[in-house]
Amino acid sequence: MANDPIKQFEIQRLFxxxxxGLDFSFTNSSLFMVATVATAxxxxxxxxxxxxxxxxxxxxxxxxxxEFVAGMLRSSAGSEGMRFFPFVFSLFxxxxxxxxYGMFPYFFTVTSHIIVTFALAMLVIGTVTIYGxxxxxxxxxxxxxxxxxxxxxxxxxxxxxxxSFLSRPISLSVRLFAxxxxxxxxxxxxxxxxxxxxxxxxxxxxxxxxxxLMTVAxxxxxxxxxxxxxxxxxxxxxxxxxxxxxxxx
Amino acid sequence: xxxxxxxxxxxxxxxEEIGAxxxxxxxxxxxxxxxxxxxITFGVFYWIMKNVAVPRIAGILEDRRDRIAGDLGEANRLKxxxxxxxxxxxxxxxxxxxxxxxxxxxxxxxxxxxxxxRRDKAEAELAEKLAAAEQHIAGVKSDAMAKIEDIAGDTxxxxxxxxxxxxxxxxxxxxxxxxxxx
Lengths: 249, 182
What we know:
Chain A is mainly alpha-helical. Chain A contains seven helices and four strands. Chain A is 69% helix and 4% strand. In chain A, the strands form two sheets. Chain A has a two-stranded antiparallel sheet. The model of chain B is unreliable at 1-20 (pLDDT under 50).
């Protein structure tokens, strides 16, 4: 059973809850969501509790995260975009910490489930659409008709823009989900090779050094991917929010 | 060999038991629970970020920016003050130097004038004395010249008496002397 690379993504009920025929159980996924939120919030609040003018080492980590996201949002959506900062910062911290939690052996990766990443992506697109419509009204649909395009070409361009807009939540969620899923499966498969090879005698034990090296390398790569996917998710969120603020691009 | 067959059976068991829905991320029976707990946890997280963490970090960063800007402003103000003080000092120095020059010049002029006056006075006095002396010399000379005739007369008379044995008359003497002197 330990060798099954899919097993790590299984959802296990910890406290079964059922309301109206729907299963709302507190699962291992829920547990890691709580852990992610608790860790991220506790870290950000406790490291900044000193409010040091000269930051301590940990405080500067929090400040770094803050300024990293703030810089991203400001450069993509301008200073107007800063009204979405708490939302974007929450997204970044949540995805980043969830991804990093997944790097612990035997821990569950919240973001390896499409429903979670899709929900987050829909939250982003929903915010963009609702805010864009509230603020610009029908002018929000200028998003689909870029200025400077001849009317004849609009017949072709507008549907492409609509399709691109509709595919955004899918690409946004699938990118994060697939990266986390594939990374963890690869890691598990290579680690599994070590186990199977050592079972095949002395030659196997000697040969298992290769998958071991691969496992180490992929672990390092996965740490990079964990951060990078959180970054990509956030930077795309910033760009979509820019569309909500300035639809006529 | 045993390991391989083991793995195969392991991989097959869940598929046979659960069927097509065995891939956990696509198992829609877990979606309701995941969505609910995501909504709860992310909602709480967003609330904490919006109301506690973000304002706090923003406050820290703003305080620091203000402090740095304030310190820079203060430094600029002090530098401005220093520059002003230096400028005032330089101006005072220049004024003092100009004044010193003026005083020195004035003194020199005054001394020169005094010296000139004293020299002029001395020269005038000397000229006066010179004139008086010349006059005196001229007086003495004319007196001497006047007396020379008497002395010459007396001498001539005495010489003639010694030679001839008889003193010449006054008239002859005068006549002879006149012709001799002239």
